[in-house]
Amino acid sequence: MALLPIITLPDPRLRKVSQLVERVDAEILQLLDDMLETMYEAPGVGLAAIQVAVARRIVVVDIGKTEEERSPLFLINPEVVWASEELSSYNEGCLSVPDYFDDVKRPARVRVRHLDRAGEMQEFDAEGLLATVVQHELEHLEGGLFIDNLSRLKRERVVKKFAKAARMDEIVAQRRAQAAPQSEEAEA
Fold this sequence. Notes:
CATH class of the largest domain: Alpha Beta
Low-confidence stretches: none
Mean pLDDT: 94
Number of domains: 2
Radius of gyration: 19 Å
Helix content: 25-40%
Largest sheet: 5 strands, antiparallel
């Protein structure tokens, strides 16, 4: 297994719509394992493939709080086939929008259909935190982020903050790259 780099806002790849998985093969199984390891290391409770720059309809989820409670779900081509009218609010965060949290309302209960690791069709009902996490991750597959559920003003503030941070990171990297050749010449 391998840790994968998680892409963050404002990376435009996060807005790509993910493609269906045609068949579950060794490459997909390896991606599932790598995504799970990456999610645990981050740490997080859900991860969509697009968050590791793979535009495929794949999600891993585990809401267990300890290693003993772990019970990972591997969702391939997942879809919500039913959602309750009742809503619940949860203070959400996202590995691709680090260190930002806000309340989001979503259906309190959902039924999800997906392929499992063996390529078999499965269905399960989810409520509470699991329902929230699954809906959050499936939103990624459509090019969405949880901040899209916030007011326009809040969303714009978050996007501006991350765009500014990305520009600053780029400036720092450019300055380091410019300084590196000069220091090598000084050593020679």
